[in-house]
Write a structure and sequence with these properties.
There is one protein chain. The chain folds into four domains: 133 residues, Four Helix Bundle (Hemerythrin (Met), subunit A); 137 residues; 104 residues, Four Helix Bundle (Hemerythrin (Met), subunit A) (Up-down Bundle), CATH 1.20.120; 124 residues, Four Helix Bundle (Hemerythrin (Met), subunit A) (Up-down Bundle). The N and C termini lie far apart (68 Å). The longest helix is centred in the last third of the chain and has 29 residues. 75% of the residues lie in helices and 0% in strands. By secondary structure, the chain is mainly α.
């Protein structure tokens, strides 16, 4: 219910978080004005209150830690520097994604937020939270009862529980005496737990016997190992049995000690075995959400890390603008009769800035690649390397792949990030079909919007804005092909694009009819090639060979 209720207020919370983020950016730009920080605190306090009403404890805790950290910054108790700003902004990016997860998937994975929570606490010199701090299963859950219940009168119940206590102690002593050979003692306790459930029925205390049965099963199956903590819990169970011995039916109406039940569930969550009882315990209490496996936890961290799709699109747009500046500078350099390598020096700063942005987006593979290009350009601009054509071609190809990855990220958001970091080819990744479908559709849309401006220019011999956009659109398709490692198709389209830019735009001339026909054939071939990527059974190599032959008629190469 609480997750469903979140959807009613989520739009308001998202807007408040967006305003908080923008206001924090305002403070970073003008740090002498602290009024924006106070506004951030006010918004976060309201959000925290709403999340507490919804009983979303982990989300409320993260907002609370964020509020306290911004208060500390406002009061001058922590430094206003880039590191502080980075932690605060990353938290504000994670929150909307985390709330999206709660609203859509409707279950919590609190451990995925632990690293960010502790970064906020470390800023304020607070002790980091432990993994156990987030183990907060819902103790109100009703457990299934499959065992026949014995409705015993009070005196008979006390007597029976005393007999069970003696049997339990026998099993416990056997384990303590022979911790390396605990099987006999564990079997004793396993039987006792089943009989205790029959005696106490639907009483709250039965939860303890039921969960303990799962733990004992896991111990017998080597799913967990006996340690001092488990022995301590087993000793506490003896005291709990004794309470029923002493108070009879009255003890059945009292909730079991919260700490005891939580600790029992914690060890149940750690169990690696797949027995029927431990599996039922994990499923009933949804323990995998509180202590998920490494892969699940890594995937959740990736998803929560964001940024959210709205911010992602803004950042991707800004990155594309920077790519255009880099491309323009390199293009001018390549076309100059006597190019000066010092003209490339300005690109080093741009590329390093882009690398930082890619790092913030989690595109570390692309970040390393662009830093490599920055180093290469620095070496060229300072005369340590010659700007030979093969080097410049490799650089252009690397930048094109990065551009394509950024474009895919803008479409798929955080869901694409993990696949973009794979060291294997995209075709070897698990959900390649999803990405490919998006890429092909986007590329075909771009190609469809290229044809008409060319036809219009041929008819009128007049340039318009749509014609001037053609190179950028073809560049985008080229990027799609390059990032998917369809390098031959990407290179053919790049050559076609250069011809269009040179003849149609710079020279503003209409080619001869035979060249127009060849150009149309090339563009049609690229579209057909995209269809083969989507599953059309045509021969992709034959299509590219046709495109290559027609392109040679255009360029004369």
């Amino acid at each position: 219910m609480k997750y469903s209720a979140l959807t009613w207020v989520k739009a308001t919370i998202d807007e408040s978080l967006k305003q908080t983020r923008q206001t924090l950016e305002q403070f970073v730009e003008y740090p002498s004005d602290t009024a924006p920080l106070q506004q951030c605190v006010n918004w976060l306090h309201e959000i925290n209150g709403a999340l507490k009403v919804l009983e979303l404890q982990t989300a409320a805790l993260l907002v609370q830690e964020l509020e306290l950290t911004i208060k500390s910054l406002l009061e001058g108790r922590i430094e206003n520097n880039e590191s502080t700003y980075d932690v605060l902004m990353r938290t504000l990016i994670q929150l909307p994604n985390y709330l999206d997860h709660l609203a859509i998937v409707q279950h919590d994975i609190p451990l995925a937020l632990l690293p960010q929570l502790n970064k906020l606490r470390i800023l304020r010199s607070q002790k980091p939270l432990s993994q156990n701090s987030f183990f907060t299963p819902d103790l109100s859950i009703v457990i299934p009862h499959h065992k026949k219940v014995a409705n015993l009168p009070d005196e008979k119940l006390k007597k029976y529980m005393q007999q069970m206590r003696v049997a339990y102690q026998k099993g416990l002593v056997a384990i303590i005496k022979k911790p390396n050979q605990p099987v006999e003692g564990l079997k004793f306790i396993y039987t006792v737990m089943q009989r205790l459930q029959q005696a106490t029925g639907n009483a709250p205390i039965s939860k303890v016997w039921w969960v303990t049965e799962g733990i004992i099963e896991a111990l017998l199956q080597k799913g967990i190992e006996i340690n001092k903590s488990i022995l301590s819990l087993l000793k506490q169970l003896d005291a709990l049995i004794n309470k029923v011995v002493q108070h009879g039916q009255a003890a059945l109406h009292v909730a079991p000690p919260k700490a005891l039940l939580i600790n029992l569930l914690y060890f149940a969550a750690l169990a690696r075995s797949k027995g029927k009882q431990i599996t039922a315990v994990k499923k009933t209490y949804q323990l995998n959400d509180y202590l998920p496996n490494k892969n699940t936890l890594a995937a959740a961290k990736l998803m929560f890390a964001g940024p959210d799709i709205e911010l992602m699109k803004i950042v991707v747009t800004l990155l594309k603008d920077e790519f255009s500046r880099v491309e323009e500078t390199l293009d001018i350099f390549n076309r100059a009769d006597n190019p000066s390598v010092t003209e490339l020096s300005s690109l080093v700063t741009i590329l390093r800035s882009m690398a930082n942005t890619l790092g913030m987006l989690g595109l570390n593979v692309q970040r390393q690649s662009i830093l490599k290009q920055a180093i290469l350009i620095l070496d060229i601009s300072e005369g340590r390397k010659q700007p030979d054509f093969p080097i410049l071609l490799d650089m252009a190809n690397a930048l094109l792949k990065i551009y394509g990855a950024v474009d895919i990220l803008g479409v798929q958001g955080v869901h694409a990030k993990q696949r973009l970091q794979q060291t294997t080819e995209f075709s070897e990744t698990p959900q390649f079909g999803i990405i490919l479908s998006v890429v092909v559709n986007e590329a075909k849309i771009e190609l469809a919007q290229v044809i008409q401006p060319l036809v219009t220019f041929i008819d009128t011999n007049e340039q318009d804005d749509d014609l001037l956009d053609v190179p950028a659109r073809l560049k985008q398709v080229e990027g799609f092909l390059a990032v998917l490692s369809h390098n031959k198709a990407a290179k053919l389209l790049a050559q076609c694009n250069k011809y269009i830019e040179k003849v149609f735009i710079k020279e503003s001339t209409v080619p001869a009819e035979e060249k127009l026909k060849a150009l149309a054939d090339v563009l049609i071939a690229i579209e057909l090639y995209l269809d083969t990527l989507a599953g059309n059974p045509m021969d992709a190599d034959d299509i590219l060979n046709v495109a290559e032959r027609q392109l040679s008629l255009i360029t004369g190469n």
